[in-house]
Write a structure and sequence with these properties.
The complex is a heterodimer. Chain A is of the alpha+beta class. Chain A is built from 9 helices and 4 strands; from the N terminus they run E-H-E-H-E-E-H-H-H-H-H-H-H. A 4-stranded mixed β-sheet of chain A has the order 2-1-3-4, with helices on one face. The longest helix of chain A is centred in the middle third of the chain and has 26 residues, at about 90-115. Chain B contains 9 helices and 4 strands, in the order E-H-E-H-E-E-H-H-H-H-H-H-H. Chain B has helices at about 15-25, 45-50, 70-80, 90-115, 120-145, 160-165, 165-175, 190-200, 210-225; strands spanning about 5-10, 30-35, 55-60, 65. A 4-stranded mixed β-sheet of chain B has the order 2-1-3-4. The N and C termini of chain B lie far apart (about 40 Å). At the A-B interface, strand 4, helix 3 and helix 4 of A face strand 4, helix 3 and helix 4 of B. Chain B: It is an enzyme of class 2 (transferase).
Chain lengths: ~220, ~230
Protein backbone atom coordinates (compact mmCIF):
# COMPACT_ATOMS: atom_id res chain seq x y z
CA UNK A 1 0.00 0.00 0.00
CA UNK A 2 1.29 3.47 -0.81
CA UNK A 3 2.36 5.47 2.18
CA UNK A 4 -0.21 8.23 2.50
CA UNK A 5 0.57 10.74 5.21
CA UNK A 6 -1.54 13.76 6.09
CA UNK A 7 -1.06 16.26 8.88
CA UNK A 8 -3.95 18.28 10.24
CA UNK A 9 -2.52 21.40 11.83
CA UNK A 10 -3.04 25.08 12.50
CA UNK A 11 -0.77 27.85 11.24
CA UNK A 12 0.80 28.56 14.63
CA UNK A 13 0.47 25.57 16.93
CA UNK A 14 3.82 24.60 18.45
CA UNK A 15 2.50 21.06 18.95
CA UNK A 16 1.82 20.70 15.24
CA UNK A 17 5.24 22.11 14.37
CA UNK A 18 6.87 19.24 16.22
CA UNK A 19 5.26 16.89 13.72
CA UNK A 20 6.29 18.97 10.72
CA UNK A 21 9.87 18.86 11.99
CA UNK A 22 9.81 15.14 12.71
CA UNK A 23 8.44 14.28 9.27
CA UNK A 24 11.05 16.54 7.63
CA UNK A 25 13.87 14.88 9.56
CA UNK A 26 12.63 11.46 8.54
CA UNK A 27 12.24 12.50 4.91
CA UNK A 28 8.56 11.63 4.88
CA UNK A 29 6.37 13.24 2.24
CA UNK A 30 3.08 14.46 3.59
CA UNK A 31 0.05 16.54 2.79
CA UNK A 32 -0.75 19.45 5.07
CA UNK A 33 -4.33 20.31 5.96
CA UNK A 34 -4.64 23.64 7.74
CA UNK A 35 -7.50 23.83 10.20
CA UNK A 36 -9.30 26.96 11.26
CA UNK A 37 -9.70 26.24 14.96
CA UNK A 38 -12.64 28.60 15.20
CA UNK A 39 -14.38 26.54 12.56
CA UNK A 40 -13.25 22.93 12.86
CA UNK A 41 -13.69 20.71 9.84
CA UNK A 42 -15.74 17.54 9.89
CA UNK A 43 -12.51 15.76 9.01
CA UNK A 44 -10.88 16.91 12.26
CA UNK A 45 -13.96 15.97 14.28
CA UNK A 46 -13.92 12.56 12.65
CA UNK A 47 -10.22 11.95 13.21
CA UNK A 48 -10.03 13.31 16.77
CA UNK A 49 -13.51 12.99 18.27
CA UNK A 50 -12.19 12.82 21.84
CA UNK A 51 -10.29 16.12 21.93
CA UNK A 52 -11.17 17.76 18.60
CA UNK A 53 -7.63 19.14 18.52
CA UNK A 54 -4.68 19.37 16.19
CA UNK A 55 -2.17 18.02 15.37
CA UNK A 56 -3.54 14.80 13.94
CA UNK A 57 -1.32 12.59 11.84
CA UNK A 58 -3.25 10.41 9.42
CA UNK A 59 -1.22 7.49 8.11
CA UNK A 60 -2.93 5.43 5.44
CA UNK A 61 -6.28 6.59 6.77
CA UNK A 62 -5.53 5.86 10.43
CA UNK A 63 -5.37 8.86 12.79
CA UNK A 64 -2.81 9.36 15.54
CA UNK A 65 -3.40 12.16 18.06
CA UNK A 66 -1.41 13.95 20.80
CA UNK A 67 1.88 15.42 19.59
CA UNK A 68 4.24 13.43 21.81
CA UNK A 69 2.39 10.20 20.96
CA UNK A 70 2.68 11.12 17.27
CA UNK A 71 6.44 11.73 17.62
CA UNK A 72 6.97 8.24 19.01
CA UNK A 73 4.74 6.75 16.32
CA UNK A 74 6.78 8.49 13.62
CA UNK A 75 10.03 7.34 15.22
CA UNK A 76 8.85 3.72 15.37
CA UNK A 77 7.28 3.63 11.91
CA UNK A 78 10.02 5.41 9.95
CA UNK A 79 12.85 3.87 11.90
CA UNK A 80 15.60 3.83 9.26
CA UNK A 81 16.41 7.54 9.17
CA UNK A 82 17.30 9.96 11.97
CA UNK A 83 16.25 8.27 15.20
CA UNK A 84 14.43 10.71 17.50
CA UNK A 85 14.63 8.90 20.82
CA UNK A 86 17.93 7.49 22.11
CA UNK A 87 18.38 3.73 22.20
CA UNK A 88 19.02 3.28 25.93
CA UNK A 89 15.98 2.99 28.20
CA UNK A 90 17.19 5.58 30.70
CA UNK A 91 17.91 8.11 27.95
CA UNK A 92 14.41 7.49 26.62
CA UNK A 93 12.87 7.86 30.07
CA UNK A 94 14.70 11.16 30.56
CA UNK A 95 13.57 12.46 27.18
CA UNK A 96 9.95 11.51 27.90
CA UNK A 97 10.10 13.03 31.39
CA UNK A 98 11.43 16.37 30.15
CA UNK A 99 9.01 16.52 27.21
CA UNK A 100 6.16 16.17 29.68
CA UNK A 101 7.81 18.85 31.82
CA UNK A 102 7.89 21.15 28.79
CA UNK A 103 4.16 20.77 28.20
CA UNK A 104 2.77 20.36 31.71
CA UNK A 105 4.99 22.76 33.63
CA UNK A 106 7.10 25.07 31.50
CA UNK A 107 4.72 26.14 28.77
CA UNK A 108 1.85 27.06 31.12
CA UNK A 109 4.27 28.91 33.41
CA UNK A 110 5.76 30.90 30.57
CA UNK A 111 2.31 31.81 29.30
CA UNK A 112 1.32 32.91 32.79
CA UNK A 113 4.53 34.94 33.11
CA UNK A 114 3.92 36.80 29.87
CA UNK A 115 0.35 36.88 28.58
CA UNK A 116 -1.50 35.58 31.63
CA UNK A 117 -4.60 37.52 32.61
CA UNK A 118 -4.64 39.12 36.04
CA UNK A 119 -2.55 36.45 37.69
CA UNK A 120 0.60 36.98 39.70
CA UNK A 121 3.01 37.57 36.84
CA UNK A 122 5.93 38.26 39.12
CA UNK A 123 5.57 34.93 40.92
CA UNK A 124 5.26 33.16 37.55
CA UNK A 125 8.43 34.86 36.35
CA UNK A 126 10.36 33.74 39.43
CA UNK A 127 9.12 30.17 38.97
CA UNK A 128 9.94 30.29 35.27
CA UNK A 129 13.55 31.23 36.05
CA UNK A 130 13.80 28.38 38.57
CA UNK A 131 12.42 25.86 36.12
CA UNK A 132 14.52 27.09 33.21
CA UNK A 133 17.60 26.22 35.28
CA UNK A 134 16.72 22.54 34.81
CA UNK A 135 16.60 22.98 31.06
CA UNK A 136 19.93 24.85 31.05
CA UNK A 137 21.44 21.99 33.06
CA UNK A 138 20.28 19.45 30.48
CA UNK A 139 22.40 21.15 27.82
CA UNK A 140 25.70 20.88 29.72
CA UNK A 141 28.29 19.45 27.38
CA UNK A 142 25.83 19.19 24.51
CA UNK A 143 24.95 21.13 21.43
CA UNK A 144 21.39 19.80 21.32
CA UNK A 145 19.26 17.96 23.86
CA UNK A 146 19.71 14.94 21.59
CA UNK A 147 23.50 15.32 21.61
CA UNK A 148 25.30 16.11 18.36
CA UNK A 149 22.08 16.03 16.37
CA UNK A 150 18.55 17.03 17.28
CA UNK A 151 16.20 14.49 18.75
CA UNK A 152 12.82 14.05 20.41
CA UNK A 153 13.52 16.47 23.22
CA UNK A 154 14.75 19.20 20.87
CA UNK A 155 11.48 18.86 18.97
CA UNK A 156 9.57 18.95 22.27
CA UNK A 157 11.34 22.13 23.42
CA UNK A 158 11.43 23.60 19.91
CA UNK A 159 8.52 25.95 20.63
CA UNK A 160 10.88 27.97 22.81
CA UNK A 161 13.07 28.83 19.84
CA UNK A 162 10.38 31.03 18.32
CA UNK A 163 7.71 31.65 20.93
CA UNK A 164 9.78 32.98 23.85
CA UNK A 165 10.95 35.93 21.80
CA UNK A 166 7.40 36.72 20.67
CA UNK A 167 5.95 36.44 24.18
CA UNK A 168 8.75 38.58 25.57
CA UNK A 169 8.03 41.28 23.03
CA UNK A 170 4.27 41.22 23.63
CA UNK A 171 4.61 41.34 27.41
CA UNK A 172 7.76 43.44 27.82
CA UNK A 173 9.24 40.78 30.09
CA UNK A 174 12.66 39.22 29.58
CA UNK A 175 12.56 35.59 30.54
CA UNK A 176 15.76 34.27 29.04
CA UNK A 177 18.82 36.46 29.52
CA UNK A 178 21.97 35.32 27.70
CA UNK A 179 24.10 35.78 30.83
CA UNK A 180 21.76 33.69 32.96
CA UNK A 181 21.02 30.97 30.41
CA UNK A 182 23.96 30.88 27.97
CA UNK A 183 23.47 27.28 26.85
CA UNK A 184 19.73 27.60 26.39
CA UNK A 185 20.13 30.89 24.51
CA UNK A 186 22.66 29.29 22.17
CA UNK A 187 20.44 26.26 21.68
CA UNK A 188 17.49 28.50 20.77
CA UNK A 189 19.62 30.27 18.18
CA UNK A 190 20.98 27.02 16.75
CA UNK A 191 17.55 25.44 16.58
CA UNK A 192 16.00 28.49 14.93
CA UNK A 193 18.79 28.55 12.34
CA UNK A 194 18.51 24.89 11.33
CA UNK A 195 18.26 24.88 7.52
CA UNK A 196 15.76 21.99 7.51
CA UNK A 197 13.30 24.07 9.52
CA UNK A 198 13.79 27.45 7.89
CA UNK A 199 10.48 27.31 6.04
CA UNK A 200 8.51 26.10 9.02
CA UNK A 201 8.43 29.15 11.29
CA UNK A 202 5.02 30.82 11.60
CA UNK A 203 4.87 34.44 10.53
CA UNK A 204 6.24 36.53 13.38
CA UNK A 205 4.05 39.59 12.89
CA UNK A 206 0.99 37.43 12.77
CA UNK A 207 2.10 35.79 16.03
CA UNK A 208 2.62 39.16 17.71
CA UNK A 209 -0.90 40.16 16.71
CA UNK A 210 -2.32 36.87 17.92
CA UNK A 211 -0.75 37.17 21.37
CA UNK A 212 -1.52 40.85 21.73
CA UNK A 213 -5.18 39.87 21.37
CA UNK A 214 -4.89 36.92 23.72
CA UNK A 215 -7.49 36.60 26.47
CA UNK B 1 19.45 -8.63 40.15
CA UNK B 2 19.09 -8.18 43.92
CA UNK B 3 15.99 -6.45 45.20
CA UNK B 4 18.10 -3.65 46.70
CA UNK B 5 18.93 -2.60 43.15
CA UNK B 6 15.31 -1.73 42.44
CA UNK B 7 13.24 0.45 44.72
CA UNK B 8 9.84 2.04 44.35
CA UNK B 9 9.17 5.20 46.33
CA UNK B 10 5.47 5.45 46.83
CA UNK B 11 2.38 4.80 48.89
CA UNK B 12 -0.02 1.85 48.97
CA UNK B 13 -3.03 4.02 48.17
CA UNK B 14 -1.63 5.78 45.12
CA UNK B 15 -2.92 4.50 41.77
CA UNK B 16 0.12 5.99 40.02
CA UNK B 17 2.48 4.08 42.29
CA UNK B 18 0.50 0.93 41.56
CA UNK B 19 1.35 1.25 37.88
CA UNK B 20 5.04 0.88 38.67
CA UNK B 21 4.48 -2.08 41.01
CA UNK B 22 2.21 -3.96 38.60
CA UNK B 23 4.79 -3.49 35.84
CA UNK B 24 7.60 -4.85 38.01
CA UNK B 25 5.38 -7.78 38.96
CA UNK B 26 4.69 -8.56 35.30
CA UNK B 27 8.45 -8.68 34.76
CA UNK B 28 8.99 -10.72 37.94
CA UNK B 29 11.42 -8.11 39.21
CA UNK B 30 11.99 -8.00 42.96
CA UNK B 31 11.98 -4.55 44.46
CA UNK B 32 12.00 -2.74 47.76
CA UNK B 33 8.85 -0.74 48.40
CA UNK B 34 9.64 2.41 50.35
CA UNK B 35 6.51 4.12 51.55
CA UNK B 36 6.23 7.83 52.05
CA UNK B 37 4.34 9.14 55.05
CA UNK B 38 1.24 11.15 54.37
CA UNK B 39 1.95 14.83 54.79
CA UNK B 40 5.73 14.67 54.64
CA UNK B 41 8.29 14.02 51.92
CA UNK B 42 11.41 11.96 52.60
CA UNK B 43 14.95 13.11 51.83
CA UNK B 44 15.19 10.36 49.26
CA UNK B 45 12.07 11.56 47.45
CA UNK B 46 13.22 15.18 47.41
CA UNK B 47 16.62 14.07 46.15
CA UNK B 48 15.39 11.66 43.48
CA UNK B 49 12.52 13.76 42.13
CA UNK B 50 13.56 17.35 42.83
CA UNK B 51 11.51 18.71 39.93
CA UNK B 52 8.07 17.52 41.03
CA UNK B 53 8.73 16.00 44.49
CA UNK B 54 6.06 13.40 43.73
CA UNK B 55 5.61 9.65 43.90
CA UNK B 56 6.10 7.22 42.27
CA UNK B 57 9.84 7.27 41.72
CA UNK B 58 11.59 4.18 40.45
CA UNK B 59 15.14 3.85 41.66
CA UNK B 60 17.19 1.45 39.55
CA UNK B 61 20.79 1.29 40.73
CA UNK B 62 21.97 4.88 40.57
CA UNK B 63 19.16 6.07 38.33
CA UNK B 64 15.90 7.69 39.38
CA UNK B 65 12.91 7.69 37.04
CA UNK B 66 9.76 9.73 37.69
CA UNK B 67 6.28 10.04 36.12
CA UNK B 68 4.29 6.80 36.30
CA UNK B 69 3.80 6.20 32.57
CA UNK B 70 7.46 7.01 31.91
CA UNK B 71 8.34 4.47 34.60
CA UNK B 72 6.11 1.77 33.07
CA UNK B 73 7.75 2.24 29.67
CA UNK B 74 11.21 2.22 31.24
CA UNK B 75 10.44 -1.07 33.00
CA UNK B 76 9.17 -2.52 29.72
CA UNK B 77 12.31 -1.45 27.87
CA UNK B 78 14.82 -2.62 30.49
CA UNK B 79 13.40 -6.07 31.30
CA UNK B 80 12.85 -7.36 27.81
CA UNK B 81 13.03 -11.10 28.37
CA UNK B 82 9.63 -11.22 30.01
CA UNK B 83 6.12 -10.33 28.85
CA UNK B 84 5.83 -7.10 26.88
CA UNK B 85 3.76 -4.37 28.44
CA UNK B 86 3.39 -2.12 25.39
CA UNK B 87 1.88 -3.71 22.27
CA UNK B 88 4.36 -4.52 19.52
CA UNK B 89 2.66 -2.75 16.60
CA UNK B 90 3.45 1.01 16.38
CA UNK B 91 -0.17 1.95 15.72
CA UNK B 92 -1.45 -0.10 18.66
CA UNK B 93 1.25 1.51 20.81
CA UNK B 94 0.09 4.96 19.72
CA UNK B 95 -3.51 4.10 20.61
CA UNK B 96 -2.47 2.77 24.03
CA UNK B 97 -0.40 5.90 24.72
CA UNK B 98 -3.22 8.15 23.52
CA UNK B 99 -5.74 6.64 25.92
CA UNK B 100 -3.26 6.61 28.81
CA UNK B 101 -2.70 10.34 28.30
CA UNK B 102 -6.48 10.85 28.16
CA UNK B 103 -6.86 9.04 31.47
CA UNK B 104 -4.33 11.22 33.22
CA UNK B 105 -5.25 14.53 31.65
CA UNK B 106 -9.03 14.24 31.42
CA UNK B 107 -10.65 11.20 32.97
CA UNK B 108 -8.99 10.86 36.36
CA UNK B 109 -9.25 14.60 37.07
CA UNK B 110 -12.97 14.33 36.25
CA UNK B 111 -13.30 11.54 38.82
CA UNK B 112 -11.58 13.69 41.45
CA UNK B 113 -14.18 16.38 40.76
CA UNK B 114 -16.91 14.14 42.19
CA UNK B 115 -15.39 14.24 45.67
CA UNK B 116 -14.79 17.97 45.44
CA UNK B 117 -18.25 18.80 44.13
CA UNK B 118 -20.29 21.23 46.19
CA UNK B 119 -23.99 20.50 46.12
CA UNK B 120 -26.06 17.96 44.23
CA UNK B 121 -26.03 19.75 40.88
CA UNK B 122 -22.25 19.90 40.73
CA UNK B 123 -22.00 16.29 41.86
CA UNK B 124 -24.47 15.10 39.21
CA UNK B 125 -22.54 16.96 36.51
CA UNK B 126 -19.24 15.51 37.71
CA UNK B 127 -20.66 11.97 37.74
CA UNK B 128 -22.06 12.44 34.22
CA UNK B 129 -18.63 13.49 32.97
CA UNK B 130 -16.99 10.39 34.40
CA UNK B 131 -19.67 8.15 32.91
CA UNK B 132 -19.30 9.78 29.49
CA UNK B 133 -15.58 9.06 29.74
CA UNK B 134 -16.34 5.45 30.53
CA UNK B 135 -18.47 5.17 27.40
CA UNK B 136 -15.44 6.29 25.40
CA UNK B 137 -13.26 3.83 27.29
CA UNK B 138 -15.73 0.99 26.68
CA UNK B 139 -15.43 1.70 22.96
CA UNK B 140 -11.64 1.81 23.23
CA UNK B 141 -11.75 -1.48 25.11
CA UNK B 142 -13.82 -3.13 22.39
CA UNK B 143 -11.41 -1.92 19.70
CA UNK B 144 -8.16 -2.68 21.56
CA UNK B 145 -9.09 -6.04 23.05
CA UNK B 146 -10.37 -7.43 19.71
CA UNK B 147 -12.47 -10.00 21.56
CA UNK B 148 -9.80 -10.90 24.09
CA UNK B 149 -9.97 -10.21 27.82
CA UNK B 150 -7.71 -7.20 28.17
CA UNK B 151 -6.85 -3.99 26.31
CA UNK B 152 -3.50 -5.68 25.79
CA UNK B 153 -5.09 -8.90 24.47
CA UNK B 154 -4.59 -12.18 26.31
CA UNK B 155 -2.44 -10.58 28.97
CA UNK B 156 -2.63 -7.23 30.75
CA UNK B 157 -0.73 -4.45 29.05
CA UNK B 158 -0.02 -0.73 29.16
CA UNK B 159 -3.58 0.52 28.89
CA UNK B 160 -4.92 -2.11 31.29
CA UNK B 161 -2.39 -0.87 33.85
CA UNK B 162 -3.07 2.79 33.08
CA UNK B 163 -6.82 2.43 33.68
CA UNK B 164 -6.87 -0.49 36.09
CA UNK B 165 -4.84 1.32 38.72
CA UNK B 166 -7.82 3.66 39.24
CA UNK B 167 -10.25 0.86 40.10
CA UNK B 168 -9.66 1.13 43.85
CA UNK B 169 -10.55 4.83 43.94
CA UNK B 170 -13.35 4.29 41.47
CA UNK B 171 -14.95 1.77 43.84
CA UNK B 172 -14.45 4.14 46.78
CA UNK B 173 -16.21 6.87 44.81
CA UNK B 174 -19.06 4.51 43.98
CA UNK B 175 -19.38 3.58 47.64
CA UNK B 176 -19.07 7.11 49.05
CA UNK B 177 -21.52 8.69 46.62
CA UNK B 178 -23.82 5.69 46.14
CA UNK B 179 -23.42 5.69 42.40
CA UNK B 180 -22.47 3.12 39.81
CA UNK B 181 -19.71 4.29 37.52
CA UNK B 182 -18.60 1.14 35.69
CA UNK B 183 -22.08 -0.10 34.85
CA UNK B 184 -23.55 -3.02 32.89
CA UNK B 185 -25.85 -0.54 31.18
CA UNK B 186 -23.21 1.30 29.19
CA UNK B 187 -19.90 -0.42 29.91
CA UNK B 188 -20.56 -4.17 30.14
CA UNK B 189 -17.14 -5.00 28.70
CA UNK B 190 -15.38 -2.94 31.35
CA UNK B 191 -17.40 -4.58 34.14
CA UNK B 192 -15.97 -7.97 33.25
CA UNK B 193 -12.57 -6.49 32.43
CA UNK B 194 -12.35 -4.89 35.89
CA UNK B 195 -12.96 -8.20 37.62
CA UNK B 196 -10.34 -9.95 35.55
CA UNK B 197 -7.82 -7.16 35.98
CA UNK B 198 -8.11 -7.19 39.76
CA UNK B 199 -7.75 -10.97 39.80
CA UNK B 200 -4.56 -10.91 37.74
CA UNK B 201 -1.48 -12.29 39.48
CA UNK B 202 0.49 -9.09 38.92
CA UNK B 203 -2.31 -6.95 40.34
CA UNK B 204 -4.06 -8.69 43.19
CA UNK B 205 -1.45 -8.10 45.88
CA UNK B 206 -1.03 -4.42 45.12
CA UNK B 207 -4.67 -3.44 44.52
CA UNK B 208 -5.89 -2.03 47.85
CA UNK B 209 -9.11 -3.40 49.31
CA UNK B 210 -11.99 -1.02 48.75
CA UNK B 211 -12.90 -0.85 52.45
CA UNK B 212 -9.34 -0.06 53.52
CA UNK B 213 -9.10 2.61 50.84
CA UNK B 214 -12.50 3.99 51.81
CA UNK B 215 -11.38 4.43 55.42
CA UNK B 216 -8.19 6.05 54.19
CA UNK B 217 -10.15 8.43 51.96
CA UNK B 218 -11.98 9.70 55.04
CA UNK B 219 -8.66 10.37 56.77
CA UNK B 220 -7.49 12.19 53.65
CA UNK B 221 -10.65 14.32 53.43
CA UNK B 222 -10.35 15.24 57.11
CA UNK B 223 -6.76 16.28 56.59
CA UNK B 224 -7.65 18.37 53.56
CA UNK B 225 -10.37 20.17 55.46
CA UNK B 226 -8.30 20.73 58.60
CA UNK B 227 -6.75 24.16 59.07
CA UNK B 228 -3.23 24.16 57.66
CA UNK B 229 -0.42 23.92 60.21
CA UNK B 230 2.15 26.70 59.83
CA UNK B 231 5.16 25.41 57.84
Amino acid sequence: MANEVKLLRSWSSPFALRIVWALKLKGVEFETIFEDLANKSSLLLQYNPVHKKIPVLVHNGKPVCESLVILEYIDETWNAAHPLLPKDPFGRAEARFWAKFSDDKLMPLIKKATIGQGEDKEEARVQTAENLKYVEELLKGKKFFGGETIGYLDLAFGWMAYLINVLEEVSGATLIKKEEFPLLSKWMENFYELPEFKESWPDRDRLITKFKNYG
Amino acid sequence: MSSSEVKVLGAWASPFVMRARISLNIKSVDYEFLQENLGSKSELLLKSNPVHKKIPVLIHGDKAISESLVIVQYIDEVWTSSESILPSDPYDRAIARFWAAYLDEKWFPSMSKIARARGEEEKKAAIKLVQEGLVLLEDAYTKCSKGKMFFGGEKIGFLDIALGCFLGWLRVTEKAHKVKLIDEAYSPGLVKWAENFCADAAVKDVMPETDKLYEFSKVLMAKMRAPQKPA
